[in-house]
Amino acid sequence: MNISLKNRKVLVGGSSGGIGKAIAQQLAETGASVTLMSRSEDKLKSIVATLPTGQGQEHHYLVVDFSDYEGYKKVISDYFESNSVDILVNNTQGPSAGNALEKKAVDYQEAFDLLFKSVVLTTELALKRMQQNKWGRIINVASVSVKEPLNYLALSNTIRAAVVTWAKSLATDVGKDQITVNSILTGYFDTDRISQLNAKKAEQMGVPQEEVRNDMESKVPLRRIGDPKEYGYLVAFLASDKAAYITGTQIPIDGGLLKSL
Question: Which of 13, 57, 205, 226 has the fewest CB atoms within 10 Å, i.e. the most exposed one?
Answer without folding.
Answer: 205
